[in-house]
Design brief:
- The complex is a heterodimer.
- Chain A contains 3 helices and no strands.
- Chain A is mainly α.
- In chain A, α1 (2-22) runs antiparallel to α2 (26-50) and α2 (26-50) packs antiparallel against α3.
- Chain A is flat, with a radius of gyration of 17 Å.
- Chain B has one domain (2-96).
- Chain B has helices at 2-29, 33-59, 63-93.
- Chain B starts with a helix and ends in a 27-residue tail after the last helix.
- Classes of the chains: A mainly alpha, B mainly alpha.
- At the A-B interface, α1, α2 and α3 of A face α1, α2 and α3 of B.
Amino acid sequence: MFAAAATAILVALALVITRAIKGPTVFDRVLAGNSVGTLAIMLLAVVGFLTGRPEFLDIGLTYGLLNLIGTLSVLKFFRHGDLAYDVESEPES
Amino acid sequence: MTLAVEIASWGFMLLGSFFTLVGAVGLVRMPEVFTRMHSASVMDTLGVGFLIFGMCLQAGFGLVTLKLLFLLALFFFTAPVVTHALAQACLHEGIKPKLAEDRRGTAGSRSADPDDGRQP
């Protein structure tokens, strides 16, 4: 059962990486990068169960938090052109 | 009892694998970035949810189940935040959603605003 789930996650990972390479805009690549993170966490959990060591879940939790911060910082960079932008100079949109 | 739990766990894991694959195929085949966000959310909610639920049934009561539920809560809160930020950044950049028909003319009866009330 875990082997089947791991195979499905690996196939999905390959398809998502295809989108990350092909993606026409940078937002496609950000989206694919976020999905790669999600699938990596699930693969970590499933392989932990497959080998009988579910302690890998701690690493998955940490990676989930890092994934959120990484994606949001990339998006903030593309929106404002700067990670520490000045709120005063933001044009009203 | 044990056999029933085993069968249910199998079912949930297979459903989770199915939805993960569907989301990944959608991510490759969808035409533009907003529809791709939609299929990525399928992977983040249904795929991850069913897989984690199947693993919870497999683990039984204990610390491992608690960690799995924390992981589920993490996805539950962070996936919408990321999708929202991505859509906002796309609209800010000037990428408009592709519609099957241009509805701005027909929406004039409800709102005279030509921009369809969408916030940039």
